[in-house]
Amino acid sequence: MKKGNYNGIKIAAIYGSVFLGAGFASGQELLRYFVGFGRLGLLGIIIAGIVFALTGWAVLRICTRHSLTNYHGLMRHLFGTKLGGLMEGAVVAFLFCLFVAMLAGAGATGREAFNFPFTAGSVAVGVAVFFVLCFGLRGIINVNVFLAPFMLVGGIVIGLFTFFAYSHPVFSMVYGRNFGLAWLLAAFVYAAYNLVTGVPILAATAEIATEKRHAAIGGLLGGGVITLLGLCMALPLFLYHANVISLEIPFLYIVTQHGGGFRLFYLAVLITAIMTTAACNAFAVTQWLEAQGFASKVKVAAVLCVVGVVVSHIGFSNIVAYVYPVFGFLGIFKIIVILWRGFVRK
Question: Residue 123's domain spans which residues?
Answer without folding.
Answer: 3-344
